[in-house]
């Protein structure tokens, strides 16, 4: 695979990795399992148990495992064709996926702030204060 194609794969393969990692660690559809994992990550009896359940609550941690799954699924490697190429690909995909998730988080935060601001302006318009 040419270097140009490898780079394209890097940026495109990071999209589903980011999507899966964000959905599991942030979205409402996985709220109950995530709350269970949070409880177990706090109250677990062993450090291994606490760390295992923590990885389902942290998008950065979870993205490593999602990346491993996608590397196994696609046989993607970067720069080198042996195990070093898989290692480089793994950390590169995690990094790009986390940039995507950070940008997505900032966009969602901005949208939420704008909705709150609009709601506040509408309430002031509908219920003006009297002096």
TrEMBL record:
Protein name: DUF1360 domain-containing protein
Bilayer-spanning residue ranges: 6-24, 52-73, 85-107
Lineage: Bacteria, Pseudomonadati, Bacteroidota, Cytophagia, Cytophagales
UniProt keyword list: Membrane, Transmembrane, Transmembrane helix
Organism field: Dyadobacter frigoris
